[in-house]
Description:
By secondary structure, the chain is mostly helical.
Amino acid sequence: MTTKKLRTFLVKYWLYGLLVIALLVGALFWWIQPTLLQQFVNAYDKAGTEKREVFETFLPILGVDVLLDFVETRFPQCHSQAHELGRTIFSQSASLELALDMCSHRCTSGCMHGVVLEAFREKTFNEVSSQLNDYCSLDQMATQYKPGNCAHSLGHALMFAAQYDIEKALRGCEQFQHQAMQYYCATGAYMEFFSAGSQARTSFHDPCARDDTYPAACYRYRLLELMVVFGEGWLEEKLENIVSECTQLTALARWGCFSGLGNAARIVAMKHPARLRQLCGQGDLTDQTMCIEGAVEKWTDYDTQQARNACLQLDDPLAQICVEATQNGMYHLDKATLKYYLSDESNMQ
């Protein structure tokens, strides 16, 4: 055999050898992955509310998609459950563009919100608030997410940077030039505040009663918190009492309270769509409108057709209001009802 033929023979079988090794390694990985996944699930379940360390351990082993698949399977309506995973993705990738691409819209952007929170983790409050308008215009953010969604994520970062001082965080949101962006920023700030869960509430309306600018952003999460405390059945069992608490308020606070009722009602209505009529059929037409929008806008993130079908079970004008809410979805900047969500004294563009 000539030297040339020998070289060709060796290269040929060397490549075959590499291919066999690659196939064996791949087969071994798929054989052990279920074991690794089960190890992750066990660690996740044992971790209580602190999941960050578990994600940090298993993300390099299992990858983003496997972990997000798990979260979405375990929590079909996931959102906040993906915050810690998003934070871990950014901390390990150190690239906003890469982290946003990996998260995409998984868990109704909950993963993305975690990425943004982690990206600003080491920033001061002034550094965060000074970047609000520019940040939502970045290529990766602007092309993948609605501006209001970006504002919401930055509300999380502001509340964290403000060390959970509500008034300070909301002042930061006012750095947005667009009025609707200020409101959506406030929703993110309040979501972060309630997620921390570090403060005892003194009343049904605490801390929302102290906010005369963005009460709807506050009640959106306060009513959900009460449902978690008292159980899902609480909403229907105590509906009359809840409505009484809302109707004793005036103007923005009242409308915000009904918006919060709607967001909580969504949890029930997604399982029993016909109950939307009763849950959001309380108060006057404006109250009912706020309740419908509170329920349906987020509902469309999970199942737009189911939400529309629920709308068709209502009577006009609520049916039309409901259908329009499914068309707008979350974070609409120019909806006609924006005046019911925040004070005219907030900064206008």
